[in-house]
Amino acid sequence: MNRDLMRTLAEARPSELNPDAPVDAATRAGELSRAMAATSAEHTAPSRRRSRLGWGLGAAAVTAAAAVAVAATVSGGGTSDRPEGDHPPVALDAKTVLLSAAHGASGQPDTTGDYWHQVAVERGYFQVGKGASGYVVASSTRTEGWTPNVKGGRFWSREQHLGARPATPADAAAWRRQGSPSTFMTVLPVRVAKGPLKEMPVKAAPGKTRTTRSAPVGGQKVFWLGRNVTVKEVLALPTDPSRLKASLLRWYDGHDTEAPDVPMARDTWLFQVTAGLITDMPVRPAVRAAAFRMLAGLHGVRSLGAVKDPEGRPGVAVATVEHTPIGDQERRLVIDQKRGAALSSQIILLKPKNGIRATWRPGSPITTTTYLASDWTTPTPH
Amino acid sequence: MADDERRFTAIYDACRQHVWAYAVSRGGRQVADEVVSETFAVAWRRLADVPEPPLPWLLGVARNVLRDHRRAEARRESFAAELRDRGAEPQGDIAEDVAERLAVLRALGTLPEDERELLILVAWHGLAPRDAARVVGCSAAALRVRLHRARRRLLRAVERAEAAPRPVRPQVGIVSEEMS
């Protein structure tokens, strides 16, 4: 979407606003000491104390937890947590998988409520250090959200850092060689600037749950489907695959260009938008079924066969490949065919090319989102 | 140095310039240093609450500091005006892409404040929509909607101004990691 425009905008940033420009040493010293002095004067000991506990507390406990987690990964097999490129033999082609999911979706009850409620676990993979001492950690966040479908309703969202740990046994070994730190200094993929890469500390230990509430912004148009749509519009989407496709494509900006690769680009776009519809949106069962049928007719969608999602639930994955500046990526949708529902969406680095992930093994995940619940509720969240 | 001091310093080093640049784009240079100071004072006091990654949280704090800041409020439009005035720079036989960037900056200066903010968070600070949503306090879904609208409006503004010899065309295609 307007990728060139956004790139031009990124490049247009006035140089004095470059976030990678060094801070003047005197300014840095002054600001740091002012910030840290301010607190001791105010004597806000409780939160300081909590902070010390939060991560000073027993490296042993954290290490033990991480060790258990790593052991689970080993015994659970690579696919469940860090999906690899090697798939079991593909028993089903993408079309069969998607049509079966469509059948599953159409059998689901057709209900609505005051709030569309979703629970998901998002897992990001980050590089720590580099070279022989470098390794990869997986950091997980549980998110829960309520989207209002009632006048005066507000958005609710709840988040919790579930902790972070080395992604694979090899990563765990490298982590232990570094003294098993309880905080990982991850390298940030700073996107829009040259200069040194930034580091971001990620705690191994889980964090607190945070709940926020907000009024719907930008009117009631709360979902993106290639265009801004309301919950009501999402509910009113066509139940016929070709009409659904046409409805989505009206908003495809690239469909009137004359580039030779247009059909491919269009289908990649459709896959992405439709996957979002399937994973995030409160569409009626018949629309979800139409969405699966529509995906079944797209170019470039292939089946990866039976997989386990990051929570270990069995499913079938379909995927498309996207060419990006950091390398080829695979966008995967893991489906529960019986229910016609999404279990997980994932972005996998197929061919690392540039950036901090250039040294990652092909098939390494970049991010995964696993959907634990998607349902309508009527009681107001609290 | 204690662990929390080390952590705080790391957060400061990773994020300070982002917070400063964000404050400049919202309230102008005159208040940016104060906003940075206040933001990091809050961060130190609430270090246990600072999530990973810290940047969206910090920008959210800076946003509140700015909102409560009288002078920042008064200067809200100054940065936009500054962007719009960029046309005054020497033109001559300026390279095409430079002209294009200039046109985009000027168009950015014509957008409503909240849309300009979103575009800056994403394009200049490299925030993913989910993280930008944390900054402005809405759901990720709503953020995507607003961002989409802001992009379209920016595109229209660029095309309307037509300052660049070559219009910037939307190009749909690959969505890389930051969109996921």
From TrEMBL, chain A:
Keyword tags: Membrane, Transmembrane, Transmembrane helix
Transmembrane parts of this sequence: 53-74
Q: Name the segments for region: Disordered.
A: 1-23
Extract the InterPro entries matched here: CU044_5270-like
Q: What is this protein called?
A: CU044_5270 family protein
From TrEMBL, chain B:
Q: Which UniProt keywords apply?
A: DNA-binding, Sigma factor, Transcription, Transcription regulation
The segment(s) forming the RNA polymerase sigma-70 region domain are 12-76
Taxonomically, the superkingdom here is Bacteria
Q: Which organism is it from?
A: Actinomadura yumaensis
Put simply, this protein is called RNA polymerase sigma factor
The segment(s) forming the RNA polymerase sigma factor 70 region 4 type domain are 102-154
**One Pfam family of this chain:** Sigma70_r2
Asked whether the UniProt record includes Cell membrane among its keywords, one would answer no
Q: Which family does it belong to?
A: Belongs to the sigma-70 factor family. ECF subfamily.
Question: DNA-binding: present as a keyword of the record?
Answer: yes
